[in-house]
Amino acid sequence: DLYRKVFVFRKDPSDAYVLLRAKLHGPLQNFTVCLRSYTDLARPHSLFSYATKAQDNEILLFKPKPGEYRLYVGGKFVIFRVPEGRGDWEHVCASWESATGIAEFWFNGKPWPRKGLQRGYTVGAEAAILLGQEQDTFGGGFDVYNSFSGELADVHLWDAGLSPDKMRAAYQSLRLPPALLAWKSLSYEVKGDVVVKPRLRE
Question: Average pLDDT of 125-149?
Answer without folding.
Answer: 97
